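Please predict the structure of the following assembly.
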Amino acid sequence: MSDHAFRDDVAAYLLGALDERERHDLEDHLAECAECREELQWLRGAADALPRSVEQHEPPPRLRASLLAEVGVEGERERGPGLLERLFSVPRRLTPGIAWSGAAAVLAIGLLGGYGLSQGLSGDEVRTISATAEGNAGGVLTMSGDGEDGAILRVTGLAQPTGGDVYQAWVQRGRTITPEPTFEVGQDGRGAVAVPEDLSGADAVMVTREERGGARAPTSAPLLRVGL
Amino acid sequence: MQLVQDGRPQAFELLYDRHGGAAFSLAYRMVGARNAAEDVTQEAFLSIWRSRLRYEPTRGSVRTWVLGIVHNRAIDALRRHTVHDRRMVPSEGIEEVREAPERTDAEVARRQEAASVRSAIGELPDEQSQVIELAYFGGFSHTEIAEMLETPVGTVKGRMRLGLEKLRRSLDAFAPEGYA
């Protein structure tokens, strides 16, 4: 084991406890000192085990749905504009009721990770409904049937919030507004969020800007609203 | 992982299904609130997707890489808040958290591994496990821990080293091939 001045810093480094300057100093030292590199490698086995020690909990399904929707959108974007991109490029402020069918619906279902739209494969109509929004913002809600399995909301033209804020979806039923997942948008103002709630009988899906972690009730007027 | 690096969302879905539970559990352990843990996990996996080409198999397992990114994101989240908001919340006794059902052999193995590592940590002297937990799970620097415990910085760093060394030896004894 190493026994010089940096010896104790190796453990603190692996635990993320060094400040930036100390970290850089140690990394410079590691580049030259085989003994400390060996110490680092050996102790890494213990540090890497720490995250595996925690009680295991199941993440909520909405997290998976939201994440896969976002990755699906980004994956499609990386491959360039295709059929899906054109399908999703619905102009703002259109009236509800644009129906999809056949291959287009199947493609969307695959890209969106299967969440909420799987019934479309068994015959329910897959619907897209455009949002009304302020400024350059826009959005399209995609769901099957009456949204019993939830929906995917895809937004465009939303500015990236500053100060660590995020966007949050909401479902409105009369005077009751239910919080839904938070989400972020890319530099191009595009983003997606899964709304896992049963939307049958709901009046609208809305989006507000909230502090990270989300809110229990909207703290500002909706930036975007999809009337159901 | 190669398919993820090729930019295939379906492969990323499998990656999430395999490591999402461990990632969320780590995030929850660190930030102590379900919504914040969801945000951290989401940010981490988006970061994984966007930086997928940086993964190098020679530098460790996919799980270690994923959990490392979750850890960094959780630290960022902790540091966005003031020190008095940062807290260590035990996993037990929090009503809003639902225990994961043991549905697969992999999940059972993960729980057994967690129990074994916890047992090894539990064997450390309190002053060593304390500084390790404050640093790794609490996101505190060694100087912050020294102030908190009113203990010299050198002593804190020494306890970290002694604790990790002992933990490493315990893990070697438990599963010599598992943590090398």
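Residues 6 and 26 of chain A are 7 Å apart (CA to CA). The beta strands of chain A are 98-100, 126-130, 132-133, 138-144, 151-156, 166-173, 176-183, 191-195, 204-210, 224-227.
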